[in-house]
Amino acid sequence: MKVLKIIYTLTITLVLFSCSKNEEQASLVTPVASPNLIIKFKFDPTQERLNNLGQPSVVASGNAAQSPIFNSISSHYLEFAPTATTQLGQGTILYHAPETTAGGTNAIDFSKSKIVAEGETFLSIPIKNITPGNYQWVRCSLLYQNYKINVLSSGVEYPGTLASFVGFRTYIGTHAIGNYSFPVNANRDQGYWAFGLNTVNYSTSGQAPAGATTVPNPIASTSPIPTGSCVVTGKFATNLVITGNETKDVIVTLSLSINKSFEWREINADGKYEPSIGENVVDMGLRGLIPTYN
């Protein structure tokens, strides 16, 4: 009887030890992270320059343009669309930036916008949260651009930085360009801009004409966008397929054409932007979107 008790005690001890060991080993296993969809931006001055219908475009007669050097960008809205007939808002919406009525009518809240440089992650969401599907198109509503341009004054060319607001309407508190501060505290429609010289103490702001901002949409005939929005549309070379069973991150890069995307009306036809003689900004829209994925 004593022998049986000893055997029983040893058996229970071994079982408990084994369970404890397994639990300890299990606690040391690193959980497998859920794969994400990651969105990044690229700025390409050599990418084809398109018009509102997604067709090749040249600078309008009487105007001149620069390909700016981009510092950063922000988007208001991102969507994957399965086909060219998928209407805006009926695809898979990935992102919609905060909005506010602080300025009266509804507007994008600039204070809550995410601003990134080229190659930085703008959006990262678990793929498991995305509707599985076969996607042909990307819609990206742009909000804010910050880039370097050159201006001419009294025969001297100066480098400067321009902040360009191309969203449908943006509520702006106070925004800054370097050491220059621009208190707005109001809504600004698409086409508002502010500018500061980098080497000389000078800053100014203005408004491009209504409806003048180029927004390329190659599927405008089957899936139009609202007037005054900035929903640039681009097609994957090969459809992006989301199954929901992905085991690795999917990185989508949105390559934006900045090919002569800063455009003004010439007074002195020399191809130089000279605001001091009254040359006014007429267009700051991006000139095309090519999405790719890894």
Distance between the termini: 70 Å
Proportion of residues in β-strands:
over 45%
Rg, rounded, reads 26 Å
Instruction: Please give the count of helices.
Output: 1
Query: N-to-C SSE series?
Result: HEEEEEEEEEEEEEEEEEE
**Rough shape?**
globular
Strand tally, please?
Answer: 18
Mean pLDDT: 91
- Helix % is under 10%
Structural class, by secondary structure, is mainly beta
Q: Which blocks of ≥5 consecutive residues have pLDDT under 50? A: 1-21, 24-31
The biggest beta sheet reads: 7 strands, antiparallel
Describe the model.
This protein has 294 residues and is mainly beta. Helices cover 9% and strands 46% of the residues. The chain has one helix at residues 2-28; strands at 36-44, 63-66, 69-81, 92-96, 99-100, 107-109, 121-126, 133-153, 156-165, 169-177, 180-189, 192-197, 203-207, 231-242, 250-257, 262-265, 281-283, 289-293. The strands form 4 sheets. Strands 3, 4, 8, 9, 12, 13 and 14 form a 7-stranded antiparallel β-sheet that branches. A 4-stranded mixed β-sheet has the order 7-1-15-18, with no helix packed on it. Strands 5-6-10-11 form a 4-stranded mixed β-sheet, with no helix packed on it. The longest helix has 27 residues, at 2-28. It is globular, with a radius of gyration of 26 Å.
Characteristics:
about 290 residues, mainly beta, seven-stranded antiparallel beta sheet, disordered N terminus, globular
